[in-house]
Design brief:
alpha/beta; 6 strands; 4-hydroxy-3-polyprenylbenzoate decarboxylase activity; 187 residues; 16% strand
Length: 187
């Protein structure tokens, strides 16, 4: 059975993390979830989800400051980690190995163990500092996957757009969630 850690940070777009958990739960993938304090505020502001609802579809939820949690060690085997959304602050912490919370600690462990780390980075426009941070994480083995919508599948709702980005993130782990229609070429 696959095991994925999902970090949700305070960047706008908390629905990306929530939808990732929903999709993985539906596929019976084990999910280990960490939600930052800023993400809690964003979830309340941007969605109708409660923390209890998110916890109910997660295998395990950890406290953001619990650096001693099982997932903070490389000996805890997981397939990788998705941070959705990923704030620039979190990107900066990962790029600089600044492990001051459980999300950044697990991201650092994921990289050192050569496991998949996928960051749905939420920021625009980008300045050179952001780009250098993305370069640094990419050079360490991370995957920067901004939730940029495609339109070939003719999305009709926000859910269609969110599902496409979440599906692309899950593709990185070889997980087919059937969240969007794949490109079949021009007709």
């Amino acid at each position: 059975m696959k095991k994925i850690v999902i970090g949700i940070t305070g960047a706008s777009g908390s629905i990306y993390g929530i939808r990732t958990i929903e999709a993985l739960s539906h596929l019976q993938v084990e999910t280990h979830v960490v939600i930052s304090p800023s993400a809690i505020k964003t979830i309340v502001y941007e969605t109708d989800y409660t923390l209890e609802q998110i916890a109910s579809i997660s295998t395990k939820v950890y406290e953001h400051n619990d650096i001693g949690a099982s997932i903070s060690s490389g000996s805890f085997i997981v397939d990788g980690m998705i941070i959705a959304p990923c704030s620039i602050k979190t990107l900066s912490s990962i790029a600089n190995s600044f492990n001051d919370n459980l999300i950044t600690r697990v991201a650092d462990v994921t990289l050192k163990e050569r496991r998949k780390l996928v960051l749905l980075l939420r920021e625009t426009p980008l300045h050179l500092g952001h780009i250098k941070l993305m370069q640094s994480v990419t050079e360490m083995g991370g995957i920067i996957l901004p939730p940029v919508p495609s339109f070939y599948h003719k999305p009709r709702t926000i859910d269609d757009i969110v599902n496409h980005s979440v599906g692309k993130a899950l593709d990185q782990f070889g997980i087919e969630a059937r969240l969007f229609e794949r490109w079949k070429g021009l007709k």
